[in-house]
Structures are given as structure tokens and as C-alpha cells.
């Protein structure tokens, strides 16, 4: 088993995946899409928690849509790492791997002799990525991390929602996804360092750290002022108008990014007089008079249906967009043209749709080699083919529940 069918830039890199749920699997799926050979270690009889996160189930597969979404380009091996034989097998796999990614609680793998310091001593070139809720150090390091509590602790919930409403989490698990993507970035950087020096290192990813990092302009607004930023609903903290407006038959997002765009908008729709009013003349003034601008433009936007606004605003190069439901998203001609959904043949024989990798490389595009695996689908292939375990030994391990 060599993974020679890979075509991406990480072809030849082998990743041992000890992750489950979302953050870790997001990281390892990205590595797999880029050509790495990923061996996913799962608990015998149970597997990744997300196999049970259903409904919905992908039709014809018996697998949850959640699991299918972040586990392509991986081989599944069942292994009880709490047993001494399981630990021995895992260390043998580490010897043949370039990267290990794990999202166990801090210190949990060290109990099995599989912590970073232990493995780095014996395998100094190994890149070891740890993804946890709060990182390997600090007063919260031992705490478990979950997306919703990280969104709460990391500040984004205080910024999300209507001004007079409850704090709101984002509708998708962004804290998990960002941790996985930052983890992938860290692994790529560590592989580059190893290429130059031959030395591996630990990539320490804390979900709270990555969450604070992507507060972006809102985090900087606080650092600049020392003031907590208010919830603004669908409005932008630094640009006005840049928000949702009602139309004659629905809603639209109007994104006026600068003063020149605001002038084009006003001139085209009989609002040129606003440009002579200092309360509207500059973006800074519009931010200071946010409610006035909103109240002035709301009846204007309500005067036409969404489709007409889309046509007219696009012709003026004024940022705008409909508020699509998911059915609209996946039917959008731009999404279709960019091939944002691909089909893969699952081991069950069913074709499953998955969201494509958004990183478009001109020479080494994302590679969809392996569909999301069934539990333990590749245990025999990996242990016999890669490690050379004898068939009779394999049978004994299976009978003992080690695999």
C-alpha cells in the first residue's frame, strides 16, 4: 500500500489520523485532498463519534452525512490503543508516517506512551499536530473544548445577533472548522521546516486561540478602543451601508464598500442630494449616523423586488446578493460552474455527494481518490500490507478485540 494513486502536492506524505468529530478530521481531510495518504485510526465497534451523528444519513450508505462530509481520502483502521498490543501497532505505524494528527484531551495519549515528547524521542522527524479546545498550556488546558462553548468564550456570540436580542452562535461550527484549517496550515509549515532540517515538531492548536485570531476587524476594533463592540445584527461595524435591506418581495444584502460606490448608488436612484449632506458624504459620517442612513435607504430598497435590484446593482458594480437558502446555494450557476459538489462511489455502492475542496491549484488540483470509508474498511490492507503482520496474527488480534 503506497498511495501511489495520489496526484496532489503532498503525494508521498503519510498521515496517521487519531482525530474524531470535526476539527481534526477537517485538518486531515484537507491534507488528504492535497495528496497525503491518511490512515484514520478508529475505535473497534464504534469508530468516529460522528458516524452516529444522524439523522440525516447519506442515502444508500448507512453513514451519517456529518461523517461523510469530512472523511474522504482516508483509510479506516480499527485499533484499540488502550491495549498494549494496540499501542505497539500504533508505534509501528508511526515509524512509517510523516505526520500524526490527534485531538485527544491534553495528556491522554501520554498515558499510552503516545504523547509528543515520547514519540519525538524515538521518531524525531515526526510532525505531531495536537488540536484541543484550549491548547497544551494555560489554566484551561485540561478542559474539553466544544464548538458552541468556544464561540461563547471567544467573543463571536457577543457580536452576533440583533442588538436587542440574545447572543447568537454562528449557524455552522466555525470554531471547529477554523481550528482544523489552522492545524493544516501548521502541519504544512512544519513539513517545510522538516524538509530543510530533518526535524519534526509539535503543532499546538487551541480552538480558543484560533477563534480569537479570526475575530479579525472586530478584535482590532476592541484593541483600538478598549470598548466592547455591540451586536449589530446584519450590519457591518466599520462600513455603512453594508447590511440586509427589505425589498418589495424579500430581502437583499447591499454592500457599499467605499464612497465612490455610494456615489454611484445615489446618482443612479435619485439620491444625489444625499451627497451634499455631511451626514452621508463619507463612510465615517455614515457609520456615525448608521440609523439615519438605514432609515433613509429602507423605503428606497423596498420600492423594487429583489431580482430587479440584483440586475440594476450588478450593472453599476455595486455589491449585492440574495439571501439564499441551501437549495438556492447548490442550484446557483456560479456554484455549479465552480464544481463545488463532487460525487464519489461509496463502499456500499451508492454514489454520495460531497462538498468539493475550495483550494483550486492550477497544476496539482484537489484529488478525490477515496470515498469516506466504512468502519475498519482498510484494517487488513494496512496491517498486512504496510506492517506485514502475518494473517494468523491478524486473526488473533481481531479475536482479541484489538482491531
Write a structural description:
The protein has helices at residues 23-33, 65-69, 84-95, 116-122, 147-153, 156-159, 174-197, 207-213, 216-225, 259-268, 283-288, 290-301, 306-315, 326-331, 333-337, 379-385, 391-399, and strands at residues 14-18, 37-42, 74-78, 99-102, 127-132, 202-206, 242-246, 251-255, 319-322, 341-345, 351-355. It is of the alpha/beta class. The protein folds into two domains: 14-214 and 358-399, Crotonobetainyl-coa:carnitine coa-transferase, domain 1 (Rossmann fold, 3-Layer(aba) Sandwich), CATH 3.40.50; 242-324, formyl-coa transferase, domain 3 (2-Layer Sandwich). It has a six-stranded parallel sheet with strand order 3-2-1-4-5-6, sandwiched between helices. Strands 7-8-9 form a three-stranded antiparallel sheet, with helices on one face. Helix 1 (23-33) links the parallel strand 1 and strand 2. Helix 1 (23-33) crosses helix 7 (174-197) and helix 7 crosses helix 8 (207-213). It is elongated, with a radius of gyration of 25 Å. The model has no long low-confidence stretch (mean pLDDT 96).
Topology diagram in text:
Blueprint: E1 14-18, H1 23-33, E2 37-42, H2 65-69, E3 74-78, H3 84-95, E4 99-102, H4 116-122, E5 127-132, H5 147-153, H6 156-159, H7 174-197, E6 202-206, H8 207-213, H9 216-225, E7 242-246, E8 251-255, H10 259-268, H11 283-288, H12 290-301, H13 306-315, E9 319-322, H14 326-331, H15 333-337, E10 341-345, E11 351-355, H16 379-385, H17 391-399
Parallel strand pairs: 1-2, 1-4, 2-3, 4-5, 5-6
Antiparallel strand pairs: 7-8, 8-9, 10-11
Amino acid at each position: 500500500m503506497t498511495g501511489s494513486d495520489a496526484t496532489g502536492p503532498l503525494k508521498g506524505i503519510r498521515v496517521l489520523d487519531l482525530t474524531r468529530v470535526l476539527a481534526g478530521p477537517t485538518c486531515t481531510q484537507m491534507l488528504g485532498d492535497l495528496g497525503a495518504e491518511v490512515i484514520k485510526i478508529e475505535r473497534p465497534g464504534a469508530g468516529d463519534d460522528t458516524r452516529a451523528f444522524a439523522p440525516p444519513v447519506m442515502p444508500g450508505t448507512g453513514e451519517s452525512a456529518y461523517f461523510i462530509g469530512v472523511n474522504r481520502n482516508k483509510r479506516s483502521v480499527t485499533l484499540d490503543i488502550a491495549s498494549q498490543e494496540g499501542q505497539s501497532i500504533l508505534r509501528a505505524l508511526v515509524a512509517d508516517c510523516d505526520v500524526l494528527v490527534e485531538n485527544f484531551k491534553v495528556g491522554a495519549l501520554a498515558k499510552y506512551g503516545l504523547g509528543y515528547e515520547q514519540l519525538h524521542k524515538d521518531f524525531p522527524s515526526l510532525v505531531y499536530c495536537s488540536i484541543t479546545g484550549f491548547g497544551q498550556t494555560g489554566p484551561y488546558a485540561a478542559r474539553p473544548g466544544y464548538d458552541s462553548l468556544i464561540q461563547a468564550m471567544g467573543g463571536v456570540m457577543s457580536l452576533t445577533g440583533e442588538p436587542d436580542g440574545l447572543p447568537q452562535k454562528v449557524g455552522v461550527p466555525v470554531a471547529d472548522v477554523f481550528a482544523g484549517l489552522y492545524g493544516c496550515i501548521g502541519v504544512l509549515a512544519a513539513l517545510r521546516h522538516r524538509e530543510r532540517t530533518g526535524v519534526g515538531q509539535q503543532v499546538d492548536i487551541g480552538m480558543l486561540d484560533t477563534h480569537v485570531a479570526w475575530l479579525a476587524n472586530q478584535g482590532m476594533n476592541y484593541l483600538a478602543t478598549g470598548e466592547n463592540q455591540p451586536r449589530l445584527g446584519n450590519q457591518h461595524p466599520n462600513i455603512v451601508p453594508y447590511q440586509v435591506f427589505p425589498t418589495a418581495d424579500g430581502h437583499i444584502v447591499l454592500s457599499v464598500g467605499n464612497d465612490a460606490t455610494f456615489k454611484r448608488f445615489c446618482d443612479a436612484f435619485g439620491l444625489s442630494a444625499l451627497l451634499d449632506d455631511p451626514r452621508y458624504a463619507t463612510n465615517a459620517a455614515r457609520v456615525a449616523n448608521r440609523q439615519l442612513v438605514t432609515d433613509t435607504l429602507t423605503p428606497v430598497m423596498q420600492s423594487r423586488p429583489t431580482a430587479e435590484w440584483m440586475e440594476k446593482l450588478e450593472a453599476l458594480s455595486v455589491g449585492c446578493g440574495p439571501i439564499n437558502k441551501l437549495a438556492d446555494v447548490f442550484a446557483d450557476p456560479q456554484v455549479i460552474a465552480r464544481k463545488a459538489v463532487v460525487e464519489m462511489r461509496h463502499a456500499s455502492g451508492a454514489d454520495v455527494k460531497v462538498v468539493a475542496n475550495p483550494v483550486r491549484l492550477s497544476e496539482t488540483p484537489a484529488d478525490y481518490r477515496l470515498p469516506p470509508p466504512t468502519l475498519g474498511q482498510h484494517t487488513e490492507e494496512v496491517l498486512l500490507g504496510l506492517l506485514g503482520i502475518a494473517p494468523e496474527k491478524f486473526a488473533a488480534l481481531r479475536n482479541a478485540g484489538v482491531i
